[in-house]
Amino acid sequence: MPLPRTRGTALRQRLAELRGPEVPAKALDARALAALAANPGCKRRAILDGAGVNKTALASALGAPSAFGQSQFALTRGNAFEAKVKADGGAELLRLVHERLDRGAEPPAEAEVPDLTAIGPEGRTARTALALREATAGAWTLLDHPMLALDVAGSPAFLEPDAVVVHPDGSWTVVEIKSFPLLDGSADPSKVGAAARQAAVYVLALEEVAARLDPAPKVRHRVLLVCPKDFSNLPAASAVDIRKQRAVTARQLARLTRIEDIADALPEGTCFAPDLPAAELTAAVESVPATYAPECLSACELAFHCRDRSRAEGAVTSLGRSVRAELGGLTTVEDVLAAARGETGDPDDPAVAALRRAAELRAEALGARPEVLRRRPETPEGPAEALGVSACR
Question: DSSP letter string over 330-356?
Answer without folding.
Answer: --BHHHHHHHHTTSSS-TTSHHHHHHH
